[in-house]
């Protein structure tokens, strides 16, 4: 979708345009509204990967606190996340009362993602085609293959991101982020010739660099899900 600002008399070029785009968002699944407990766990997470969550957009999922008798202090939660470098952009799920409270704190309600529905079984995405990217993916680039597999014939640099609704095949080193099955399909896999990733994710289940076994780094690996657990194992030759 592309929306341009209206032209006014004497203006040759519109001052802005609005475009639809795809972004990867981190989801914070809230299970208890206790801010002190949230901060303790958040500090531990940040210690695992210093700088990884810096300026990271975050969506707060309220499914786990729907029945909380205490409600949620959204203003306090917003300040807590900002203090630790995260950027809350909205909430999803939750009761109408929680959604109203969030809006009053400046947090909009976002539509539920098919990738993380609590009771909904993700649909199998049948790949329509594969996208082949024949160049290295440089830092800051994002390559997306909608409704199919992504094949990268070079290296994915640190700071780069490759995304697919299906599988991801990397015929080089994976040093950036790779996210497969982003529409909720749990069957896709990630394959790479040298695993040096900042993050790997399938259907929203992810591991960051510090959670990858050092013995697996630099090796030809595949990543897939088994009973909702992310498995990283050597490619068989």
Q: Describe the largest sheet.
A: 6 strands, mixed
| Count of extended strands | 16
Report the CATH C-level class of the largest domain. Mainly Beta
Number of separate domains:
2
Organism: Candidatus Contendobacter odensis Run_B_J11
InterPro entries: CAP/MinC_C (IPR016098), MinC (IPR013033), MinC_C_sf (IPR036145), MinC_N (IPR007874), Septum_form_inhib_MinC_C (IPR005526)
Keywords: Cell cycle, Cell division, Septation
GO biological process, one term: division septum assembly
Fold and architecture overview:
- The protein is an alpha/beta fold.
- 14% of the residues lie in helices and 32% in strands.
- It has helices at 35-48, 74-83, 96-104, and strands spanning 2-4, 17-19, 26-29, 57-61, 87-92, 129-133, 142-145, 148-152, 161-164, 168-174, 177-180, 190-195, 199-202, 205-208, 221-226, 229-234.
- Strand 3, helix 1 and strand 4 (57-61) form a beta-alpha-beta unit.
- The radius of gyration is 20 Å and the shape is globular.
Descriptive key words:
237 residues; alpha/beta; Alpha-Beta Plaits; Pectate Lyase C-like; six-stranded mixed beta sheet; five-stranded mixed beta sheet; 3 helices; 16 strands; globular; CAP/MinC_C; Probable septum site-determining protein MinC; Septum_form_inhib_MinC_C; cell cycle
């Amino acid at each position: 979708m592309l929306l341009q600002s209206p032209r006014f008399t004497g203006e040759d070029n519109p001052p802005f345009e609005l475009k639809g785009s795809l972004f990867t968002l981190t989801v914070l699944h809230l299970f208890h509204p206790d801010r002190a407990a949230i901060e303790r766990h958040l500090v531990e997470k940040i210690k695992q990967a210093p700088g990884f969550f810096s300026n990271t957009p975050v969506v707060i999922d309220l499914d786990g606190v729907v029945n909380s008798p205490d409600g949620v202090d959204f203003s306090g939660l917003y300040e807590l996340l900002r203090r630790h470098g995260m950027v809350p952009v909205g909430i999803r799920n939750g009761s109408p009362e929680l959604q109203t409270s969030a809006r009053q704190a400046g947090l909009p309600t976002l539509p539920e993602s098919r990738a993380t529905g609590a009771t909904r079984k993700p649909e199998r995405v049948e790949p329509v085609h594969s996208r082949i990217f024949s160049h290295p993916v440089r830092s800051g680039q994002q390559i997306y293959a909608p409704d199919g597999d992504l094949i990268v014939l070079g290296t994915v640099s640190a700071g780069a991101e490759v995304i697919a609704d299906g599988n991801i095949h990397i015929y080089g080193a994976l040093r950036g982020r790779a996210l497969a099955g982003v529409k909720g399909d749990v069957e896709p896999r990630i394959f790479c010739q040298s695993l040096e990733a900042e993050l790997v994710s399938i259907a929203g289940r992810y591991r960051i660099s510090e959670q990858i076994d050092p013995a697996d780094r630099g090796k030809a690996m595949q990543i897939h899900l088994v009973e909702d657990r992310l498995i990283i194992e050597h490619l068989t030759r």
